[in-house]
């Protein structure tokens, strides 16, 4: 996995915060002022041009991701509600980790699928009610097409 600061987290567990009341931009500004956060990439805005769909910050050498609340996409709520924090795992093979989590008792809340930002990504809830997301670069999880089929 790449350690390029312009890409997503490179490993470990990353907290993913959901911000209530369309205050994602305020949250980014606060984390910059309070903790010296740096934007690893510019925030990706939703189609409405206002809400943050995804922001990736670096704080003290670690990653924190955040987004504004999107009630239209399910139960991922803001602080004080279920799903307010999602623990993100950036892995080499999302399908293997996903299947292992389901076998261990996790419940899918967002299907594992190839996403527009280049990751194979999905979300689960563990048996204790905590939300987890699992992501891997698409090229790392989709087998290359065999040469003889590509030429057909």
Tell me what you see in this structure.
This protein has an eight-stranded mixed sheet with strand order 2-3-4-1-5-8-7-6. Residues 1-6 and 143-152 have low confidence and may be disordered. β7 and β8 (131-137) form a beta hairpin. The protein is of the alpha+beta class. It has a single domain (13-150), classed as 2,3-Dihydroxybiphenyl 1,2-Dioxygenase, domain 1, CATH 3.10.180. It has four helices and eight strands, in the order βαββββαβββαα. Helix content is 20%, strand content 38%. It has helices at 24-35, 94-103, 138-141, 147-150; strands spanning 13-19, 38-45, 52-59, 62-68, 85-90, 107-114, 119-125, 131-137. The longest helix is centred in the N-terminal third of the chain and has 12 residues, at 24-35.
CATH architectural name: Roll
Order of helices and strands: EHEEEEHEEEHH
Overall shape: globular
Topology-level CATH name: 2,3-Dihydroxybiphenyl 1,2-Dioxygenase, domain 1
Number of domains: 1
Poorly predicted tracts of residues: 1-6, 143-152
How much is the average pLDDT?
Answer: 81
CATH superfamily: 2,3-Dihydroxybiphenyl 1,2-Dioxygenase, domain 1
**Strand composition percent:** 35-45%
CATH class placement: Alpha Beta
Discrete helix count = 4
Count the strands? 8
Radius of gyration: 16 Å
Read across the widest sheet, the strand sequence of neighbours is: 2-3-4-1-5-8-7-6
The biggest beta sheet is recorded as:
8 strands, mixed
What gap, in angstroms, lies between the N and C termini? 32 Å
How much helix is in the residues?
A: 10-25%
Which structural class do you get from the secondary structure elements?
alpha+beta
């Amino acid at each position: 996995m790449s350690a390029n600061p312009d890409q997503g987290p490179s490993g470990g567990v990353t907290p993913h915060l959901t911000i209530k009341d369309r205050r994602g931009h305020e949250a980014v500004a606060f984390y910059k002022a309070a903790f010296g956060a740096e934007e690893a990439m510019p925030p990706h805005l939703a189609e409405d041009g206002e809400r943050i769909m995804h922001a990736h910050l670096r704080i003290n050498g670690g990653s924190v991701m955040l987004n504004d609340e999107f009630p239209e996409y399910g139960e991922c709520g803001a602080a004080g509600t279920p799903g307010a924090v999602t623990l993100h795992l950036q892995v080499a093979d999302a399908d293997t980790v996903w299947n292992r989590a389901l076998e261990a008792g996790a419940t899918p809340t967002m299907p594992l699928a190839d996403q527009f930002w280049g990751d194979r990504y999905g979300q689960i809830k563990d048996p204790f009610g905590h939300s987890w997301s699992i992501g891997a670069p698409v090229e790392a999880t989709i087998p290359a097409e065999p040469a003889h089929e590509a030429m057909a």
